[in-house]
Amino acid sequence: MIVLILSIVPSPIHKLGPLVPVLNAGPSNSTYGYSRQWASFGGPSGPNGLALDGAGNIYVADAQNYAVGKMSGSGTFLSIWGSQGSGPGQFKNPIGIAVDNAGNIYVTDSVNSNVQKFSITGTFLRSWNSNGTSNGAFVHPQGIAINGTGYLYVVDQGNQRIGIFRNDGAFTKFFRLGPPGNFTMAMGIAIDSQGFVYVDDANTSFKDGFSGNVTKFTQNGALVSSWGGVNSGGTLFYPQGLAVDSSFNVYVADSFDGESRVEEFSNTQKLLRTFGSWGSLPGQFSQPMDVAVDNQGNLFVADPLNFNVQQFSSTTGAYLASFAYQRSGLLSTPFNSAVDGLGNLYLTDQSNERVQKFKTFDGTFLTMWGSYGNQTGQFNGPSGIVVDHSGNVYVTDYNNNRVQKFSSTGAFIKTWGSFGTSNGQFNGPIGIGADSSNNIYVTDNGNDRVQKFDSSGNYLLAWGTTGNGSGQFNGPQSVSVDAGGLVYVADTGNNRIEKFTGSGVFVLAWGSIGSANGQFNSPKGIGLDTAGNLFVADTYNSRVEQFAGNGTFLTTFGSAGSGNGQLVHPEGVAVDAMDNVYVMDTNLLVPGTADNRVEVFAPFHNTAAVRLTMSRNTAFVGVSLVNLVALNLTVSNYGLSNETFWVMILANNTVIAKQNVTLASRLSQNVLFAWQPSLQARATYNITGQVQPVPGDPNPANNKIQAGQFSVRMQGDVNGDCRVDIVDLSTIGAKFGLQSSDPRYLSAADLNNDGITNIVDLVLTAGKFGQTC
Predict the structure, then answer these.
(1) What does the pLDDT read at residue 686?
(2) How far is CA 276 from CA 289, 300, 373, 614, in A?
(3) How far from 583 is each of 314, 337, 360, 600, 705, CA to CA, in Å?
(4) Average of per-residue pLDDT across 616-641
(5) pLDDT per residue over 636-658, tens digit each?
(6) Which one of 127, 245, 348, 707 is CB 3.0 to 4.6 Å from 687, fit for a cystine?
(7) Which of 346, 343, 370 is nearest to 572 (CA)?
(8) What CA–CA distances, in Å, run from 544 to 2, 32, 41, 277, 522?
(9) Which residue has the higher pLDDT, 133 or 103?
(10) Where residue 551 falls among pLDDT bands split at 50, 70, 90?
(11) Could you tell me if 251 and 314 are in contact, meaning their C-beta atoms sit under 8 angstroms apart?
């Protein structure tokens, strides 16, 4: 029941009032509903194209994030712009990138078949394309370069030609290498200080005369020479991007998988040296896409499959550094999560090869650690994550076949595991759980078993074989342990949940393939609440199901989609001490296009706002108020468990004050807000108190009540009609001499808030006489 008490009396200004027992508690509700969310897609840098400006800053055409990324010459992240799409400033596959002398950036998009131009700050300026064969049109444009006079040269791969444009997009001419068919897969382009144009062709077919070579042209497109391809006796297998230095040496990124290197040729076309080799270690490449060289002898290589830009000495060939950017708080395939006892959520940000830590209450980013690799503290497919009762964090490192242990701040502690089938070895570890003694349970996915270790990684026991019988598995994923030491395993390939004792003795199983309640389509993440109920991420049914510990179906929430409360292939599930459910919502089929967020679902606790009092309702612009506006909102938790929620005050439906409160079951609490209303625009404001979220409450009025109004008026406008006139003077005259203790006193007539209506108020009003809003 809602009771509204509105009084205009002074209220003390403080934060939290006393806890008061609720005498008539309402019914509880075990249904879950959408509460809040945070994060969005942000993958690791995937540099296809590479360019340098005059200050040595590095620009990358970032195909992983559908964006342009900017770093300093030392690798410090500076900015990023762009998103997925076909509109201005959007990309589908940015490939080539170039910077002119004024700092403008030009980017080719092979899927949108266009060139876009941006200012030095990333502001979209213009684009041009028509996706065709006419003059100035493109089909799958690739590399782009700018000559000394500001003309753009664009590799129009689909039309087997090079287009020349002014920097405003006006078409000038095109040229191609020989008859159509010879120039079959042109990729990279570079221009030297004399205006000569270099183009490479990635087609290594021996039938195509110049294919696979680097070809040199005059600025007007006349053929000068060609060299380097394996079909003409050279060493280039699959050339992509290229660059020319001030000595006219040519650097070519050869992305053939078995080679994956950069080759340097002299101005006489002699092979001088090679940089790198195939692999993922520093100084190694996995299909490098582009190169750039500065005036200080530094060579930069775009290596998108290793998610970085690598720096070498162009004079010695020595590896110098690797650069990549990871933006905190953004996600690329969030896989699993865990909540500690302090209200922090840890998640494996799988495609970013890291762990991120957030506050559970509002998603505030706290810290992150990890990068791609196989060294300590690095990851190759971080999957499961759990926090033990001592606050240590354990992560399964899937492709490195190991478990890594960290402190709560990400400091590396130890690791164990290697590839194999023996005790303590793994074939793709995924899920990880911890019991009350800090023993660690790991689902060994490829070996179809669960292994148990102590907190130091010492092997204790294992159970499970391949199959669909009791205690057997088919690609098990998540594992969770309840307060009694019982172990729950998501037997993903068998579309069921299996329950065991801590020593691996089979207890029961439930589930089958389907979309009905209690059925699954690839169950992956699981989590337990304080009552021992199990939440299961039913990944390809795009929902979460809740079960009692004995397998009895309780409820389900979520549906397919990207809206609030909807899910696209949910992966991990974690539950906090107040039974809020955190779901890692990803998109497994089309990474980067949707979701990649944390969604929070909360139990319905029937929390209500039951009383709201207000201490002052008038303020005047230009007057220093003595009394702030104070509002006292009383809230009550009618549910049977604790809840954390927002308590807020709204003026004309705009939040002007808000704070979070954790309220125990069957208790009420006062929350007081105070602010200076004269800082707001002149208007009359309707005041509302609200408790949020209480998702899905059948009676929204339980959570929102009106308090009344306050006005912010022009000084001297006593009656609030937006003009100062005789009516205002008369009103003050009628209240002249009245003090605030007098019931006839009108606060609106006391302009200076000194507790009495007197000559000062008349003078203030007279000084504004005739003015209007």
Answers:
(1) 82
(2) 13, 12, 17, 71
(3) 48, 8, 12, 6, 32
(4) 65
(5) 776 656 677 778 888 888 888 88
(6) 707
(7) 346
(8) 33, 10, 21, 46, 12
(9) 103
(10) very high
(11) yes
* Two structure tokens written together for 590: 């089309």
Place of tokens 């292939």: 569
Are 62 and 289 contacting, i.e. CB atoms less than 8 angstroms apart?
Answer: no
CA distances from 603 to 29, 524, 639 (A): 7, 22, 9
What is the reported pLDDT for 616? 57
- For position 18, what pLDDT does the model report? 41
Residue with tokens 């159970």: 463
Q: Which of 473, 460, 368, 376 is nearest to 428 (CA)?
A: 473
Closest CA to 387 of 430, 432, 452: 432
Q: Which of 71-85, 265-279, 640-654 is the least confident region?
A: 640-654
Residue 553 CA to residue 510 CA, distance in Å, equals 10
- The side-by-side arrangement of strands in the sheet containing 114-118 is 94-99, 105-109, 114-118, 124-128
Residue with the two structure tokens 């009394």: 627
Give the three-state DSSP class for 63.
coil
Round to whole Å and give the CA distance between 602 and 605: 9
Q: What residues have CB less than 8 Å from 373, skipping those under 6 apart?
A: 280, 281, 353, 379, 380
Q: Rounded to an integer, what distance in angstroms lies between the CA atom of residue 474 and that of residue 325?
A: 37
Identify which of 228, 163, 153 has the alpha carbon closest to the alpha carbon of residue 195: 153
DSSP character at residue 445: G
Alpha carbons within 13 angstroms on the beta-carbon side of residue 418 total: 1
Direct distance between the N- and C-terminal alpha carbons of the chain, in angstroms, rounded to an integer: 42
Spatial strand order of the sheet with 412-416 comes to 382-387, 393-397, 402-406, 412-416
- Do residues 725 and 769 make contact, with C-beta atoms less than 8 angstroms apart? yes
Q: Which of 272, 236, 227, 312 is nearest to 50 (CA)?
A: 312
To the nearest 5 percent, what fractions of the chain are helix, strand and coil? 5, 45, 45
Residue written as token pair 């302090």: 342
Amino acid at 426: F
What backbone torsions phi and psi does residue 387 show, to the nearest 5 degrees? -115, 125
HEC string of 549-576 equals CCCCEEEEECEECCCCCEECCEEEEEEC
What mean pLDDT value characterizes the chain? 86
Q: Residue 330 carries which DSSP code?
A: -
Cα–Cα dist 301/293, whole Å: 9
CA nearest neighbour of 308 among 90, 92, 69: 69
- Could you give the CA distance from residue 633 to residue 95 in angstroms, rounded to a whole number? 56
Tokens of 725: 């006139």
Angstrom distances, CA of residue 302 to CA of 103, 278, 557, 673: 20, 14, 43, 54
60 within 8 A of 50, measured Cβ to Cβ: yes
Tokens of 210: 């110049």
Does the N-terminal peptide bond of residue 288 adopt cis geometry, omega within 30 degrees of 0?
Answer: no
Distance CA 301, CA 48 (A): 10
Q: How far apart are CA 261 and CA 228, in angstroms?
A: 14
Provide the phi-psi class of 722: left if phi over 0, else alpha when psi is between -120 and 50, else beta.
left
Quote the tokens at residue 292: 């750039």
- The DSSP symbol for 85 reads S
Q: What angle do CA 557, 563, 568 make, to 5 degrees?
A: 65
Q: Which residues pair with 686 in a beta bridge?
A: 709
What CA–CA distance (Å, rounded) separates 1 from 17? 21
Cα 247 from Cα 227, distance rounded (Å): 18
* Position 751, amino acid: L
**Bridge pairing between strands 654-663 and 667-675:** unpaired
| DSSP assignment letter at 749 | G
Record the tokens describing residue 566, joined without a space: 């909807």
Six-digit token pair at 568? Answer: 């696209």
Q: What is the amino acid identity at position 67?
A: A
Q: Which helix (H) or strand (E) holds 115?
A: strand 114-118
Which of 57-61, 100-104, 428-432, 759-763 is the least confident region?
759-763
